[in-house]
Design a protein that fits this description.
By secondary structure, the protein is an alpha/beta fold. Helix content is about 40%, strand content about 15%. The protein is built from eleven helices and eight strands. Helix 6 packs across helix 7 and helix 8 packs parallel to helix 9.
Length: about 280
């Protein structure tokens, strides 16, 4: 047996279909898992082929695809449309979908009704923002058989109340409140929680104290998993937040391809004989 084959035979096997229990197993094993947003079949299929374990149909679709300034403009119908597009396109990743702003704040009844519709569209887990105040919604969703991922720290749907994109939990009082909120979500039945724009030490502390997996975005390396908006990850957007690493330059590549296309059309070198019919 070669060294390469020996190494591959002892590597942990990835599940054929990612389930929530696999995220708990990853946490127990200390193996970080990856999550990316996805909104269409092509990005979803690429990420599935890359081995991304969790795909998030985020309400960020409003600002990354639909041209809105904030996620608060994203509607429940938007979420149903894009959740369905991703869910129909892949088989392996765990599909998580956001409850849109205004679709759950009024109480458990609204949360369950809209959660059920997202599940029917293909979501296997739904995400909602907030801590202790939304625990009745979390409990109701779980009681209805809908797994829940919480979201703490900077919560984009509350961007106006939080006075913009700001790191949360920097002072002792705010840090203690975040920890209380994380425990409350877990006790209400949440199966995971996103920590966004949280000091790394605090995120590590929360991760260590929770039994459920944490997913970080701008929360340092101590979380059980990491998530990014895929257009930021791939360098397609022009957002360059401190916590973002662009792993490609798709914006530049796409612009160069479009410029070459325009140039060849203008020079009549495209389409050529090989692209034409007799």
């Amino acid at each position: 047996m070669t060294a390469a084959s020996s190494s591959s035979s002892t590597a942990p096997k990835r599940p054929a279909t990612v389930r929530i229990r696999h995220l708990f197993e990853a946490k127990a094993q200390g193996r970080p898992f990856s999550m990316l947003t996805a909104y269409d079949q092509f990005s979803a299929q690429v990420f599935e082929a890359a081995g991304i374990e969790v795909l998030l149909i985020g309400d960020s679709v409003g600002s990354t695809v639909l041209g809105h300034e904030t996620t608060t403009a994203t509607t429940h119908q938007d979420m149903l449309t894009f959740t369905g597009a991703v869910a129909r396109s892949v088989r392996r990743p765990l599909i998580v979908a956001d409850l849109a702003f205004g679709s759950y704040e009024a109480g458990p009844v609204d949360a369950v009704r809209h959660g059920v519709e997202l599940v029917r569209a293909g979501a296997q887990m739904i995400k909602l923002e907030g801590g202790t105040p939304v625990t009745p919604q979390v409990s109701a969703l779980v009681a209805a058989g809908i797994p829940v991922m919480g979201h703490l720290g900077f919560t984009p749907q509350s961007v106006n109340a939080l006075s913009g994109h700001r790191v949360q939990g920097r002072d002792d009082h705010a840090a203690d409140q975040l920890l209380r909120d994380a425990r409350a979500l877990q006790e209400a039945g949440a199966s995971a929680v996103v920590l966004e724009l949280v000091p790394a030490a605090l995120a590590s502390r929360i991760t260590a104290e929770l039994d459920i997996p944490t997913v970080g975005i701008g929360a340092g390396p101590g979380c059980d998993g990491q998530v990014l908006v895929w257009q930021d990850m791939a360098g397609l957007s022009d957002f360059r937040g401190k916590f973002v690493k662009a792993f490609a330059d798709l914006r530049g590549d796409l612009q160069r391809a479009a410029e070459q296309y325009r140039s060849e059309v203008e020079s009549r070198s495209y389409p050529g004989p090989e692209h034409s019919f007799e």
